[in-house]
Write the structure tokens for this entry.
Amino acid sequence: MIATAGLFLLDALLSFLTVALLLRFFMQACRVSFNNQLGTFVVELSNWLVRPLRRALPGFYGLDLASLLPAYLLQVVLALAVLLVRLGIDGATPGVWLPLVFWSGLLATLRLAIYLLIVALLLQAVLSWISPYSPLGQPLSQLTRPVLRPIQRLLPTIGGIDLSPLIAIVFAQLLLMFL
């Protein structure tokens, strides 16, 4: 019981930090301005981890690997903790479970990235109806634009309603089924 509660708390903490790191990665990749409430929050939450890594880990074609690598490693640590609690310390040899832990960390990071996209799409859709000039409207629009643009080119607005967020969410959910 205590182990389950500990895993829950560890999962909540590491997943929250992973989402913040992934958000920082995607905001930089999509050239979203960090001069807003969301950007300031993400930078202040993750700077203690990203800044030291930037000295040792350079970017790759404009991608911030210093934000992406710790997000992945946090999920690896979480997968390792889950495995150790379930199997025990001497449950299996490292040669057997170590590749599984790294693969599980990669899948968990991809799942969190897709969930982050779904939440951004939902928030953008709701804000476009309720408060289109919200301070979060512009960063969310910039963040989801690379996903929505190709869909908008293929599917025009119908009766003044843009269905591209709905199509993107359906594809994201479909992708989650395979992860």
